[in-house]
Amino acid sequence: MTRCDLDEHDFLHSSAHGERRVLMVLGLTLVTMAVEIVAGLIFNSMALTADGWHMGTHAAAFGITIFAYRYARKNAKNPRFSFGTGKVSVLGGFASAVALGVVAILMAVESIHRIIEPEEIRFNEAIGVAVVGLVVNLASAFLLKDGHQHHHHGHDHGHSHDEDHNLKAAYFHVLADAITSIAAIVALTFGRIFGWAVLDPVMGVVGSLVITKWAIGLMKETSGILLDSSVSPEFCESIRSTVEAEQGLAVTDLHVWAVAPGHHAVILSVDASNDWKPGAVKLLLDDIGHLVHVNVEVHRI
Question: Cα angle at 88 between 84 and 90, to 5 degrees?
Fold first, then answer.
């Protein structure tokens, strides 16, 4: 569907804010990834090596996030996108959620393998590097959480919050990294003190389950917007009841869908027994927030 009119559908008011934060986190992630992989190989710590490669997969996800930001900005005024590029960030979030799920699976498989075939670890050196990795992860999470909360101010009826799903996905990725770092530190510490090396892979399995839960939740949230199924019946009913509160109007057809997080389009058909004009019906919906494109058909009865 091509946009042939001159209406603006630019929903990228703060994408540059999110993009800058993701770029900073990407730099931190790449440096820490390299340090952990090298240290894991030197100190024979599978926990560190695994954490480093997990950070590598998250760095790839951050690349998807940045690409989505830039693609959406570049095509914000492209008429080929009928309702703008608001869903590009949602698509980026969905892709990152899939990557997050893959990371969880790889963590589980790797952890089970280490239960079967344990390796001797140089605990002291590995713990030091894991602590550095955790600090970097927490700093990255702080950067992304501030931006994520800045965007998270939604509408109670629509259940499609005005939030940046790209930034939310990146935030979940660094939280996943933090979990793997914490798991590595706990396992390495107990392994050094009590000789309980098996805790390392067990913590890896637990971490993979937590990450899987996040991934599934983010997939559900973003797929609902991508498939136009994210709008609640209550929000649709609020539109219907607002119109039908006026004498002589009856809603015969109503379609509501999200064109971007927190922004909805509406196609509305009404039967009118009085001399109602489409513009007058549209004015009835002015008090309902988050409606950015409303098309009204009026049929005389």
Answer: 120
Place of tokens 């909360």: 149
**Which pLDDT band holds residue 11 (cuts at 50, 70, 90)?**
low
- The H-or-E segment that residue 279 falls in is helix 278-283
Q: Could you give the C-alpha distances from 299 to 243, 244, 248, 253, 286, in angstroms and in order?
A: 14, 14, 11, 11, 21
Q: Is the dihedral of CA 189, 192, 194, 198 positive or negative?
A: positive
- C-alpha–C-alpha distance, residues 106 and 102, integer Å: 6
Q: How far apart are CA 33 and CA 51, in angstroms?
A: 8
Report CA-CA distances (Å) from 25 to 29, 63, 209, 255: 6, 11, 24, 40
2 within 8 A of 49, measured Cβ to Cβ: no
The rounded distance, in Å, linking the Cα atoms of 58 and 100 is 8
Q: Strand 263-272 to strand 249-260: parallel, antiparallel, or no bridges (unpaired)?
A: antiparallel
The pLDDT-based confidence of 202 (bands split at 50, 70, 90) is confident
DSSP 8-state symbol, 190: H
Q: What is the pLDDT of residue 156?
A: 43
- What is the rounded average pLDDT for all residues in the chain? 77
- Angle between the N-to-C axes of helices 15-43 and 165-194, in degrees from 0 to 180, rounded to the nearest 10: 20
Quote the pLDDT of residue 271: 93
Q: Is 293 helix (H, G, I), strand (E, B) or coil?
A: strand
Angle between helices 165-194 and 123-151 (to 10 degrees): 160
Cβ-contact 254, 240 below 8 angstroms = yes
Question: Residue 157 pLDDT > 70, yes or no?
Answer: no
